[in-house]
Amino acid sequence: AQKVTQAQTEISVVEKEDVTLDCVYETRDTTYYLFWYKQPPSGELVFLIRRNSFDEQNEISGRYSWNFQKSTSSFNFTITASQVVDSAVYFCALSGVYNQGGKLIFGQGTELSVKP
Amino acid sequence: EAQVTQNPRYLITVTGKKLTVTCSQNMNHEYMSWYRQDPGLGLRQIYYSMNVEVTDKGDVPEGYKVSRKEKRNFPLILESPSPNQTSLYFCASSFSGGAGREQFFGPGTRLTVL
Question: Is the minimum CB–CB distance between B102 and chain A shorter than 8 Å?
Answer without folding.
Answer: yes
